[in-house]
Specification:
InterPro entries: Bact_Solute-Bind_Prot2, Peripla_BP_I, SBP_2_dom. The protein has 13 helices and 13 strands. By secondary structure, the chain is of the alpha/beta class.
Length: 356
């Protein structure tokens, strides 16, 4: 067989595989689409810089139409987007809620129209989602707490003054994060080794409000703090900005979450002590797989877990988070989540010293 014939045969085989694998999806996509509603672009840049692209790519690869919109922190806009998607013929909705009440209203309306919904990243309490795709969020919090303790241990601090800078009180994930880090740190607080100086939630994950709240916490602590247990990098970096003004950055352990470029750079400079990496590409692909199964009227085999939302047990895909310190920032880059050039620009010596 000539090289030309081999090449042609290979192409025909590849096309046959693609057509076989995508035929159902293409049939479903011919007259329907999946709607995705993201929450905002301010609390964390992950929604636009990571989730949107990964979701789009996953549906594109399957030949399924998708409409991805962002509510930009506005609950009324969230509901308007959902109404528009349902009116336009969406057959599945994937949503990251702004709070459970407004998302439940959307799920109830979708359910009445026979449209299944998927909770993405955040669970809608008492909702009616067909599936839930996220990370083990209590485990995320435990990694944050363990990172803070490790930082304090490394500094030789047997006693410590700490504050909790928690996420939005309307986000169930924030509740789970806190449950996780408190489970690690509470025994030390109860034993009086650690003093919990203050414990505050930040409305709507608003980083500006988080900075103001932390400034008040630092004042309450008399300027003497050893650790800030912050629920994500947006809040952690808001705290770092306040610490910098007081020449305390790098002297106080500060946790994060999301492994953003800014967060990873702060890990390398020592302004953040630890963060948590969540493989968002896998999360997005997991949600797309479930949505396509629903679109095709098939049972999903990937939802091997279950989480109770207060009303029902929701079949779930729960991914495993990874704690990040200077020692393994390189792993986030190796995984393709963050680009080395972005993380290391101006920090080349620190990157080299940490194996990047």
């Amino acid at each position: 067989m000539t090289k030309r014939r081999i090449a042609i045969t290979a192409v025909i085989a590849a096309v046959a595989i693609v057509l076989t694998g995508c035929s159902k999806s293409e049939k479903a996509a011919a007259d329907s689409f999946v709607g995705v509603i993201l929450p905002d672009a301010a609390s964390s840049n992950r929604w636009e810089t990571a989730d949107r692209g990964f979701l789009q790519a996953a549906f594109d690869a399957a030949g399924v139409k998708v409409d991805i919109q962002n509510a930009n922190g506005d609950k009324a806009a969230f509901q308007t987007i959902a109404d528009q998607m349902l009116s336009a013929g969406a057959k599945v909705l994937i949503m990251v809620n702004l709070d459970s009440d407004s998302a439940k209203a959307v799920q109830d309306k979708a359910s009445a129209q026979g449209v299944p919904t998927i909770d993405y990243d955040r669970l809608t309490l008492n909702g009616s989602a067909s599936y839930y795709v996220s990370f083990d969020n209590e485990a995320v919090g435990k990694l944050q707490g363990e990172g803070i303790k490790a930082c304090l241990d490394a500094a030789g601090k047997k006693t410590a003054r700490i504050v909790y800078l928690n996420g939005s009180p309307t986000d169930n994930n924030a509740t789970l994060f806190k449950a996780g880090y408190d489970s690690v740190l509470r025994p030390l607080i109860d034993s009086k080794a650690y003093t919990l100086v203050d414990d505050q939630a930040v409305p709507d994950w608003d980083n500006a409000k988080g900075g103001v709240i932390f400034e008040q916490q630092l004042s309450k602590a008399g300027g003497k703090l050893d650790a800030v247990v912050s629920a994500n990098e947006g809040l952690g970096l808001a705290a770092v900005a306040v610490l910098k003004k007081n020449k305390l950055n790098g002297k106080v352990c500060v946790s994060g979450q999301d492994a953003t470029v800014d967060g990873l750079r702060a890990i390398l400079t020592g302004d953040l002590s630890n963060t948590v990496y969540k493989a968002i590409k896998a999360e997005a692909e997991g949600a797309a797989t479930l949505a396509i199964a629903l679109l095709n009227g098939e049972d999903a085999t990937t939802a091997t877990g279950s989480v109770n939302n207060g009303a029902i047990d929701v079949p779930s895909v729960l991914l495993v988070p990874v704690g990040i310190t200077k020692a393994n920032v390189k792993d986030v880059i190796a995984d393709g989540f963050a680009a080395k050039d972005d993380v290391c620009k101006g920090l080349e010596d620190l990157c080299a010293a940490n194996g990047i």
